[in-house]
Each structure stands twice: as C-alpha cells, then as structure tokens.
Amino acid sequence: MTTGKYISHTILSVIMLLTGNACSRFEVETASPAGRDIPISFSASVDENRSKGIFTPENFSRPGHEIAVLDILDDGKFYIGGANGGETFTSQDPSSPYWSDGQTHYWTPSGVHNFFAYATQYARSNDPELNDEEIGLSDMGGGYSFEKDGDTYSMILEDWVIDVDKQFDLIYARHRRDMAEPNPYRDVELEFHHLFAAVGFRFINITNTSKYTVTNWHFTNLKNKATRVAIPLTDNGSDISMELSSDGEQQLDCPTKDGYQRTDIYNDKGPVSIYTDEGYIGMSEHFLIWPHSYEDLKNVKFHFEYYPSNGSHIPVTLNMGGDDCDFDINRWEAGTKYMYNITISDNKIYWDVKIVPWITDDVILDER
C-alpha cells in the first residue's frame, strides 16, 4: 500500500458501524492527500456473547457511547491522545453507521506505536423498559488518570467502590507495532479484555408451596473497593496491580427490605436472578465485581434468609471461598462469569456454581 494510492482522494474521516449476526463494527476511513503518510483507520466490534450486556451489537451505535484510543511512541511522546486520556470516538445516530472523533491520524514513517483503547461512557437508552442509565468511568468514584513510572505508562484507578449503582463495564485493549517490521501498515488487532469478573445469584424453588420469601441477602467481607489499580498501557509483560479492600460491613445488600416474594407456583416461571434490574445492573443476571484471588475470597460470605409457607425461618450463610468453601470455585477471575444457583426444596436448600468465561472483544486498527 503506497501513499500514491490516495492522490486522487479527498480527506474523509468517518466511523462506520457494520452489524452482522455475531458482532457490530465501527470503522474510521481516512484518505490522505499527496505527500502525506498512510492514514490509520479504526474499526471496533462487540460480540453479543462477549460482554456483560452494556456494549452489545443491538445498542453499539447509541448516541453517547464512547471509546477512547491512545497511541504512545517508544520515545514517550503521545501520538494519539495525551497524558489526560485518549481521543474519544462517539456514536452519532442510532440509525446511522457513522461515528466520529473529528480528526484524521496517519502512520509515522518510523518508530514504534503502542496502542491502548478503553471504553469511557455508556449512554442511556430511550427505551424505559431497559432500565439502563448513563454511566461512565468518572461515575465510579475516584475517577481515573494516567501516570508514568520509569518507561511505563499506566491507567490508574483510585478509590473505586463497586455496588449496584456503580457498574461500568470497563474493557481495555493494547497492541505494539514497530514501523520497521515488514508490512507495518497491516491490520492492527487489539483484543479487548474485561477488567472485572461478573457474579450472579439465582433462587430456584422446586417445592409444591404456593408462596415463599427470600430476604436480607448480602455479602460480608467482599472486596468491593479498590484503593488503587494500575493497568500498564504497553504490552511489555507488566501485570495489572490491584489493592482491594472491603467498603462497609455489608456489600451489595438486599435491594428492598421485603426481599423477593412469589405468590404462584415457581416451577412455571423459571429461576429468579436476584440482582437483575437493580441499579445499573439492568437486565443482566450478573453484577460486576473486582477479581478476587484465593486470599481475597476466602473470608467472603453470602447471607440470605428463607421463609417457607409454613411460617418458619431459615437463615443461611455460605462461604464463598477458603478451605471451608461451600462451592468448588474459590476465586473470581477477570473476564469470567459465575452463576450461583440456590435450589430450595421444602426445608432443604442446595447450591452450586457454574462458570461462563467471557470471550475477548476484538478491535482492529488498519490502513485503507
């Protein structure tokens, strides 16, 4: 691909969203006038099976959705974005495939590019039934910044507390490209990774009772606060570092004092996911939470109370991790979904957990 290819072209900068059966895309196409380097074009995809439910093919072009891109050269200079963040690409119209950042970016003739992309804003839907609110990185508490330590830049998150009202699905991606490589203008593939784990709880009733109540569900010792998280912008082998703690005696409390009640036969309706439709969780069955190592999860407990139709009271406290874990999972990993099923049969209660790994979201930066 040569610069001469673009001599007859005028400058065009658009972001195009292509929706198929599996994924949605947005693209930036740029054409360079004579004497300019080859332009960089951006495309992004979000697969319907690869996200918690915030960014999906159906809503990806919603006005207000934002993804930011940084490009740091090996000499430490920002080529796209700057020390305060990346260039923001925003969806313009749900009926249009076009996104825009208002700028055109060209490949350099030499040097090494370190690309870093991250989601910054989720826009509210006009559909009141979706119960999804506008939320962004700045709504997570302490906000975010970018710092340099030696030769490494990092995205820094400070004092982030996760609860049902703070559920931003932070995804990030990075790629390194040396312009001295053969065909340096080839597609630049970025894999989006999820910063958080996702956890859900379902109550399943298999009794013949016509009424029962589950109430007062909450966690204790949950690591729902990060005092500091550092995500290296360059893929140089540096791991993400997290300093986690518990914020409050109880976390992700029961959303209503009355808990969950059913007045009909439960088997006819299927399981109930207790955190669905609460706060920013929306219609997803899972809430986002910081990844928990074995040490982080070993003291975490989940508590609920069950009132059968006979009027008795059964309190239950489950050990989420540690040597006496009530499940066969004793850690929560980033990019992985966990669904805990609690089955009620008369005065007996059973529980298990299933894992549904997230698949990474692919973003491609390529030249035209």
Observed structural traits:
single chain; 368 residues; mainly beta; ten-stranded antiparallel beta barrel; 25 strands; disordered N terminus; disordered C terminus
Would you write up a description of this structure?
With 368 residues, this protein is mainly β. Helices cover 1% and strands 44% of the residues. It has 1 helix and 25 strands. The strands form 4 sheets. Strands 1-2-3-25-13-12-8-4-6-7 form a 10-stranded antiparallel beta barrel. Strands 14, 19, 20, 23 and 24 form a 5-stranded mixed beta sheet that branches. β6 (87-91) and β7 form a beta hairpin. The N and C termini lie close together (8 Å).
Task: Give a quick rundown of the structure.
The protein has about 375 residues and is mainly β. It has one helix and 25 strands.
Instruction: Note the beta-strand portion.
Output: 35-45%
Order of helices and strands: EEEEEEEEEEEEEEEEEEEEHEEEEE
Low-pLDDT stretches are 1-36, 44-54, 264-268, 363-368
Shape category:
elongated
Main sheet: strand order: 1-2-3-25-13-12-8-4-6-7
Average of the residue pLDDT scores: 75
Work out the helix count: 1
- First-to-last CA distance: 8 Å
User: From the alpha-carbon coordinates, what is the Rg to the nearest angstrom?
Assistant: 24 Å
Number of strands: 25
